[in-house]
Amino acid sequence: MVRIFDMIEKAKRSGYDETNAESKVCQDLILLLISQSKYNRNVTVKGGVVMRSITNNARRATQDMDLDFIKYSLQDDAIERFIAELNTAREVSIKRIGKIEALNQQDYHGKRIYVEIADAEGYILKSKIDLWCT
Description:
Blueprint: H1 4-13, H2 18-35, E1 43-46, H3 48-55, E2 64-69, H4 76-86, E3 92-105, E4 108-119, E5 124-133
Parallel strand pairs: 2-5
Antiparallel strand pairs: 1-2, 3-4, 4-5
Helix pairs in contact: 1-2
């Protein structure tokens, strides 16, 4: 059974402050859900989450998550299907909250979503995910 509170406490014992521990746990859970989904070969993790993982350094913590879709649409309905597929896990639930926002950076166009993840005990985390398409 996934207990978000316990995961946060473990991250804090590893050197993360409260905010970064919550962000790390949320990111780790999203990665777990992606790995268990049919989209596991359609997503590349980018940015700060990768740097934190490579260095294993709490000081490299990041508040958001960057995902690159491979051969998958950035249309709003496709993003909704992606989140719905991630929500099929039994350990935690994930849902999109708020609006899907358009992002533009030089030659890249993406979308920003906000998600909420909850465990069976009702512990809730919120996070931001930037989605890009290659």
